[in-house]
Amino acid sequence: MTANAPKMTEQEELIEGIVRRYDGEVGMLIPMMQDLQAEHGYLPAEQLRRLAKRLAVPLSRVYAVATFYASFRLAPKGQHEVTLCVGTVCYLKGAGQISEAICKEFQVERGGTTPDGLFSLQLVNCLGACAVAPVMIVDGEYHNEVTVESALGVLSGLPPEKESTEGEAEA
Amino acid sequence: MTVLETKRLSSAADLARVRAELRGRRDPSAKCVRVCIGPGCAAKGSTKLYDLFVQAVGEAEADVEVEAKGVGCHGLCERGPIVIVQPGDIFYQRVEEPDVAEIFRETVLGGRVIERLLYEDPATGEKATTADEVGFYKAQQRIALAQNGVIDPTSIEDYIEAGGYAALAKALSSMTPDEVLSEVERSGLRGRGGGGFPTGRKWRSCRDAEGSPKYVICNGDEGDPGAFMDRAVMEGNPHVVLEGMVIGAYAIGSSQGYIYVRNEYPLSVERLRGAIERARDMGLLGEDILGSGFSFDIRINRGGGAFVCGESTALMASLEGRPGEPRAKYVHTVESGLWEKPTDLNNVETWANVPAIINRGSDWFAAIGTERSKGTKVFCLVGKVVNTGLVEVPMGITLRQIIEDIGGGVGDGKAFKAVQTGGPSGGCIPAKHLDAKVDFDQLTELGSMMGSGGMIVMDEDTCMVNIAKYFLDFLQDESCGKCTPCREGIAQMRYIVDRITHGEGQPGDVERLEELAELLEGTSLCALGKTAANPVMSTIRYFRGEYDAHILEQRCPAKVCRGLFLYEIDPEACKGCGVCAKNCPEQAISGEKKAAYVIDQEKCTRCGTCFDKCPFTAVLKV
Description:
The complex is a heterodimer. By secondary structure, chain A is an alpha+beta fold. Helix content of chain A is 42%, strand content 11%. Chain A contains seven helices and four strands; from the N terminus they run ααααβααβββα. Chain B is an alpha/beta fold. Helices cover 39% and strands 14% of the residues of chain B. In chain B, helix 8 (177-187) packs antiparallel against helix 9 (199-208) and helix 10 runs parallel beside helix 12 (266-281). The chains are: A alpha+beta, B alpha/beta. At the A-B interface, helix 2, helix 4 and helix 5 of A face helix 2, strand 11, strand 15 and helix 18 of B.
């Protein structure tokens, strides 16, 4: 999957590899962008520009997709990933207050990253774990039946470095 | 199960022979531990349990043959993690890590049942040894979920051994595409994604449409909050979805299929990918399936996290690499869908019903259910109900049977208030309609809808106005913005309802909401907008008094909407610790240590901090 053009930069090679993975089909733009995001953790502007150029589509088309779908991000992620479920059951059991409290306490917006880059907050609608609602996932680890206090407690205890993905206080 | 050598099956007889071989190898007394790794149990740490069992199996004596299987959702999420031990079908619930060694030693090796881990009927106190004895499962009838929790979803051998791909072999070797179509038509199967459109008729329209190629799509963009039926099928038994799709493609005359999976379901993607590869290797997918000359392949696309993509035309736009905006459907997608070609789109659960219909015949299927809604439906029974979980019931069962008999009622001594079905497009059904039969038409008559199968139970502590606001919030976020009625209409409705929940409602607000609702229903482009008012309209229809209390008396009867009820300290329960006073941002609480504290209602801003902080639940909402 490596490109053979000698002058290609690493970034260009990455785009080339992704585009070839889908035979250059413009219809596969979304999977291509998903792969690109998996590589960088977000969609860097210059990479989107390269992708548009390589596929010979207007940059506006690429941005239309990037801004329409909630899973695409145009800015780097925080060190930790926090997913809070706000599906109906979690909401009934207090997820609304929890998200409000997190946003207020850490000055973060839904879908945004804290000013210090500690974590990105994503709100999702239903993770299928309604039996243990409200649910919050921190770096892949489930915290069940969280409350405002326990959620804030978990997040305040997050280590500033990414290496440590385990050992947070259990909810 | 030992993995078969990868060998292409070249005929239906070949498949039957392999199945017989697999069954012959199966020892009925074989020891097996099945650990549920469905989303509910996984959230409670069941994947760790599975690892521990695998480890225990690895360390067992050489002469003991044990198998540990990670299986899909059993349904009873409330009692998870669930572990089933063979032989004997022993059903263990709420298993924790320290229990693993005991289960392995006592039950797997020793054949003894551990009473402590059995399910105990909360009413009778009786213990259930097998799942069949658990009340939750008794009223259920499983077609789509038949193999969930039984087979290992990563093993095609398990699926084949359980009778998998027999329907496909039957269709390809002994039925014409037209016969397959007629069979599905006669079965009365209707779309399980919410709309309830007759599946056979959709297939026929697509088959008869001019143009080629024709596409077949599986809609796995399960977006309704509180609904995870399709996820359970995709992760618990991916091959049944593939088999259904291949049969459908054969009937329709399609050679390319797509499965569009919700972005939040990475495990579904992984399971389906694995299943597709294995099916291809064995000649059950791809070129010349089972030597029949029929070819069909499937590609998986991941959604981008947009609820509207569950709508068929939006989903197709997304598959074409564009923003998921729906289009008006004066030309149906069966005539001009994906890439403007005839396209048939069905929901995951619909596809999962197809193999059983072909295997057992349309008469068998049509005998289940009501006159116009045949078969079963999978529901996610969640919210304020004792047995949270996934249930599959015959159509025509009453809401009361589902909620009380299977779900065990509301629990916590609270009163039932409403059940919400159909997700953000559905509505809230009150207690007086609990004896309504669950089918497509009845639920629509009640102002709700079948939807994809979310069933959220609400108790007396739920404010219906607040719930209406929740769904409007959701829909406002998820409206794609293409058509004005939906984009602006939902925002206006939300603005009004939001005001009401803040005690700023005005007389006439309800009528304004009704007007907007009519506008949305009549003029929106797609189903998202057309049904967006349902949560509001159904709550107005059944709970008008609650709206009036908010608007006219600035009072929230369920005591949910902040500012519309008071906080008081119960002098009996108050221990005089002073935590409330210390935390009150307005210094509105006063009192002496060790004596009951009092809230000054003039100063109180109803922020609720005291309620949250009181260690003795002495702060009351009144």
